[in-house]
Amino acid sequence: QLGLDMEELEEIEEDAGLGNGGLGRLAACFLDSMATLGLAAYGYGIRYEYGIFNQKIRDGWQVEEADDWLRHGNPWEKARPEYMLPVHFYGRVEHTASGAKWIDTQVVLALPYDTPVPGYMNNTVNTMRLWSARAPNDFNLQDFNVGDYIQAVLDRNLAENISRVLYPNDNFFEGKELRLKQEYFVVAATLQDIIRRFKASKFGSTDSVRTVFDSFPDQVAIQLNDTHPAMAIPELMRIFVDIEKLPWNKAWDITKKTFAYTNHTVLPEALERWPVDLVEKLLPRHLQIIYEINQRHLDYIASVFPNDVDRLRRMSLIEEGGIKRINMAHLCIVGSHAINGVAKIHSEIVKTQVFKDFAALEPNKFQNKTNGITPRRWLLLCNPGLAELIAEKIGEDYVRDLSQLTKLHEFVDDDIFIREVAKVKQENKVKFALYLEKEYKVKINPSSMFDVHVKRIHEYKRQLMNCLHIITIYNRIRRDPAKLFVPRTVIIGGKAAPGYHMAKMIIKLINAVAQVVNNDPTVGSKLKVIFLENYRVSLAEKVIPATDLSEQISTAGTEASGTGNMKFMLNGALTIGTMDGANVEMAEEAGEENLFIFGMRVEDVAELDRKGYNAHEFYNRLPELKQAIDQIQGGFFSPEEPDLFKDVVNMLFHHDRFKVFADYEAYVKCQEKVSELYLNSKAWTKMVIRNIAAAGKFSSDRTIKEYARDIWHVEPSDLKIPPPNEPRDAVEDKTPNGTTA
What is the spatial distance between Cα 398 and Cα 401, in angstroms, rounded to a whole number? Predict the structure, then answer.
C-alpha cells in the first residue's frame, strides 16, 4: 500500500557483523535452531558499536573502514536498563577472616540489549542478550578529581570503550588488555544475570538467607563457544566461594557440572594464552583462583602419574618459560564436564593430538558435535526457488527435519526434476551476474562455471592454491587459444585481518592476476577472475545459491569443520575439497564419488612433516607450477613493481606450513575432472541432486539436538505453543524440564 518493495527494503538493512567468520555465524545458526526446537536458551555476547570492518578494495589492496552499523538505529533491539549490572576491574585482594575480598575496583556498568530470536512457525521467541558498556555516573568524580570535572566526564569514554569495537582476528590470538576486558565483561555480566534468574526461580530456594545451589547444574547449562569466555570458570568460582560462601569443593563440583567447552581450532597461533602479569593487574582475585584450580589439578595428576614431571608441565594451566601465561584451553578442559570438537576428524585430532594428555586422564569427557547450518536462512530465505522446488517433491516438513531430503534420491533420474533444478541454478546465476554488473561494473557470462572460494583469507585456507590454478588455466589458454576450454568465472572473496600481512598480500596477488587475466584478449570469456569486495552474510546469501563449484581446499587437519561447505552443498553446488573438517562427513553422506576429493589426507601431511617438506622438489618437478611461480616472482602480474610478491614466493618456498605445492598437482588434475563433468549438464545436475539429498545431516537442528541430549540434558520439544491470542490451557508449570542453556 505504501508503494514500497520488500526486497529493496531488505537491501537497505545493515548486517549485524558482530563476529569474524564461522564462529559468530555458527552461534547465529544455533540460536535459530534452539528457538525452533523450543529450548529455553539464551545467547549472550557483546553489543559492539563497530562490528567487523567494511572492506574496500583500492588499487587491488584491502582497505578497512569502520562498520558504523548502528548509524540509523537498530529496530530489532530493546535496551533493558532495568537489568543493568556492575562489572569490576583492577583493584586488589584482601584476605579476611570471612574470606577473600576484591576491593578498590573500578566499576563499569553492563547495559543489556535484547533481540528476539523467533523459532520457525512455532510461536516460540527466545532472547539474544548483548551487553553494552556504560560508565557509572560518578565515574572519575568519586575522589579528588572533582577539580577537573570536564576531563572526568570526557574520561567516561575509557570505560565505554569496552564495547566499542570487535577485534577483527579470525583464528589468531592477540593478547591485548582491551580484549581481555571484553572477555571478562561479557562473562561477569552474563553470570550475574544467570544467577539472578536462578535465584528468582522456584529452584533457587533460600534457606533463611542463603541460596541453595545444589540444583544449579540441573537448571543451568553454560556452553563456552571457544575459549573466549573461559574467564567464566574462575568467575563462577569467585561468586560461589567469595560471595555465596560455598566451600571450595562444593563450588568446584557445581562449576564443572555447569560448564561445557567447544573447541573450534587446532592452530597453535589461535590458542589463547594470557600473560599472568596482565591477568594479575586486571583481575587479581581470578588469578588467585586459577592458581588454586591449577594446584589441585596438578596434585591430582601427580597422584595418578607419580614422578612424571614432564606430564605436569604439559598439563599445567600455567605455562612457564619466558613470560608466564595462562593456557585458557587447559582451564576450559579442567573446568568443564564435556569437551567437544566440531567435526569427526577435528574431534579425533583434539583427542589424540592437541589435548591427548587430558583425554588420557578423562577420555569420557571428549565428544564430537559436527557443526550444522540453519536451513531457514541458508535455503528458504536465500534460495526460495530451490526450496519451493524441493517442497513440490517431498512436502514442506523438511524445513524442520532436514533428514527428509533423502527422499530426493527417488528423483535423481527424473528428467523433469533434473531440468527444474538446473533451471533454478541458472536463474540464480543470472540474478547474481546482474548484481555483479550493477555493483562492480563487470560483465560475466552466466553460462560459465561459477567457481567460488569465499571465506576469511588465511594461509591455511589456501586461497593461494586457487590462485596458482587460475594462473595455470590462464597459461594453458594462452598456449593453445584454439582449444575448447570450459569457461569459468572464478570468484574469490573474504576479509584479511588488518594486521595479517601475508593475507593482505594474497588479496593483492589475486587482484593483480585478475587484472591481467580479465584484460587479455586471447582469453576472452573463457576465464574471468573476480575478487568479491566486503564478503559478509548478506553477500553470502546472494553468491551461494548462484555457485556451481564450492572450493574447500584447506590443508588436511587444519579446518576444524567449516560451515560454508554445508551451505554450498544445500544450495546445489558441487564441492572440490580436501579430506578436512566436515568435508569428510559430506563425502561420507553423499558418497565420495559425488564430491571432487583430492590431495593429502591427515596421515600424508604427518608423513610429509616427518620426512621434511621441500617445496623446491615440487617446483622443479612440475613445469606448470614452476611457470606460475616464475611469473609471480618475475613481475608478470606486477610489471611496475616486479618484486611486489617476493614475500609470498619466499613463504611458499621456505616456510609454507600449509604445503600448497604438495597438493598443487592433485588439485589441478581434480579441476580437470570438474571441467569434464561440467560439459555434461545432465550428469552434473544429477550429482547436484545426490548432494542436496545427502545434506540433511548438516542442519544445525541435528547439531543442537545432540548438544541438548548429550551435554545439556534437556529434551527438545516440537510442541507448537499456542499463539498469544488463543486461551492457554493450564500448562503453566508443566514445561518438560525447566533447564536453560
Answer: 5
As a whole number of angstroms, the distance between CA 729 and CA 18 comes to: 40
Task: Tell me the sheet residues that pair with 223.
Answer: 260
Please give the residue range of the domain that contains residue 580: 384-698
| Nearest CA among 219, 111, 93 for reference residue 163 | 111
- Residue 377 falls within a domain, yes or no? no
Which residues are known to be catalytic? 264, 455-456, 461, 563, 567
Q: What's the rounded mean pLDDT across residues 161-189?
A: 96
CB-count burial class (<10 Å; 0-12, 13-18, 19+) for 263: buried
Rounded to whole angstroms, the Cα distance separating 455 from 461 reads 8
Q: pLDDT value at position 343?
A: 98
Q: What is the pLDDT of residues 461-485, one digit of tens each?
A: 999 999 999 999 999 999 999 999 9
Indicate the length of the chain as a whole number: 741
Number of domains in the chain: 2
Considering the domain boundaries, does residue 717 fall inside one? Answer: no
- Contacting residues for 250 by C-beta, under 8 A, at least 6 apart: 240
Distance CA 203, CA 213 (A): 9
Q: Are 516 and 636 in contact (CB under 8 A)?
A: yes
Structure confidence at residue 144 (pLDDT): 62
631 with 693, same domain: the answer is yes
- Cα 740 to Cα 72, 119, 195, 207: the distances in Å are 34, 16, 12, 23
User: How would you classify the pairing of strands 106-118 and 78-79?
Assistant: antiparallel
Q: For residue 40, which of 248, 201, 164, 178 has the smallest C-alpha distance?
A: 201
**Pair 269, 332 in one domain:** yes
Q: What is the CATH number of the domain that holds 450?
A: 3.40.50.2000
Q: Are 458 and 332 contained in the same domain?
A: no
The reported pLDDT for the residue numbered 171 is 87
Amino acid at 705: K
Proportion of the chain above pLDDT 90, given as a percent? 91
Indicate if 402 and 355 belong to the same structural domain: no
Over residues 548-578, the pLDDT tens digits come to: 999 999 999 999 999 999 999 999 999 999 9
Pairing of strands 92-96, 99-103: antiparallel
Q: What is the pLDDT of residue 145?
A: 57
Q: Phi, psi at residue 93, to the nearest 5°?
A: -110, 135
Q: What average pLDDT does range 54-78 have in this prediction?
A: 98
Whose cell is 533447564? That residue is: 739
Distance (Å, rounded) from C-alpha 70 to C-alpha 50? 8
124 backbone dihedrals φ, ψ, rounded to 5°: -110, 135
**726: confidence class by pLDDT, cuts 50, 70, 90:** confident
* C-alpha span between 430 and 441 (Å, rounded): 15
Q: How far apart are the first and last CA of the chain?
A: 42
